Each structure stands twice: as structure tokens, then as C-alpha cells.
């Protein structure tokens, strides 16, 4: 009986990859047909306009429904809770600072911190390189742009809506099995 070491090694690699959840075809190339990553979040103009309305004007049940669908999508696309919590912690810190200020106090530092949130999210997305966080960046960029930084009262309301929206996404992400 002849032992073919090369075929044995290839079979071993294929079995290992299948057991680890990786999808490789027999030639050793990545086969995405069974991958959870194939799905893309369709972020249409209608979604963008709705998001601007939800953050800028009113937070309603449609906002929650959108957050649920998006949180579920992020959970399926390997975005980790820890990646989201880093950003969320900064959002909540800014929100708490804004809500704690009395009328007439300077919002300058809070606005600056909020404006710097956008490049921090972009950095996290580039550093991670996963599809889920890149899609989160796209959605949060639009939400970020909807926050009114010109008017103090509007800033408080829109930052609260922004934080609530992010919290909703995080909650649904976790509810649908988002990993740590």
C-alpha cells in the first residue's frame, strides 16, 4: 500500500478548516458561499434621510426597528461587543457631560469631544478591518452629522437621540448573539 503524504496533509487541512468554521474549497481557496460575511448592509438614501430625522427631530418606533435590524446584521457579521463598547463609552461620557451642564455654561469642550468622535470611529473601523464595523462607521457618520452643534438646546436633544440610537444598536447586537 502506497501512502500519499501530500493528499493526507490536504485532507487534514480541509477537515481542520471545516471544523473551525472556515470555508475553504478543495483547492485551498476561500469559499464564501457559506460565510456569514457575504451579507452587506444596504444603507440607502431613504435610510440616511430617516436617520437624520430620527437624530435631528424625533426618536420613534421606526428608529428602534431600524436599530434592531442593524444590530442583528452586526451580530451576524462578526462585530464584537468590545469594539462597540469602546465607542459607546465615549458617547455616554460626552452625553453625561452635556446633560450635566447648566444653561449658560460653555459647551465648547463637549462639542469638540463630540466632533472628535467621528475620526475615532473611523480609526476603529480601519484598525479592525471587519465588514461589520465599517458598516457601523457608515451609519454612525450619518447619525453624527445629524447632531446639531450650533444650538445649545438642540445639541442636548440631538446628542441624547444619538446616544439612545447607539445604545439601541448595541442592545440588539448583544440580543442577537454578538460576541465579546
Task: Explain what the structure shows.
The protein is mainly alpha-helical and 180 residues long. 69% of the residues lie in helices and 0% in strands.
Question: Characteristics of this structure?
Answer:
single chain; 180 residues; mainly alpha; 2 domains; globular
Offer a quick outline of the entry.
This protein has helices spanning 5-20, 45-56, 61-76, 81-100, 108-128, 131-145, 152-175.
Average pLDDT number = 79
Number of strands: 0
Structural class computed from helices and strand pairing: mainly alpha
| Beta-strand percent range | under 5%
Uncertain runs:
14-37
Q: What general form does the structure show?
A: globular
| SS summary, helix count | 7
Whole-number tally of structural domains = 2
Query: Based on the structure, what is the oligomeric state of the protein chains?
Result: single chain
Largest sheet: none
**Alpha carbon gyration radius:** 21 Å
H-E string: HHHHHHH
Task: Outline the secondary-structure elements.
Elements lengths: L4 H16 L24 H12 L4 H16 L4 H20 L7 H21 L2 H15 L6 H24 L5
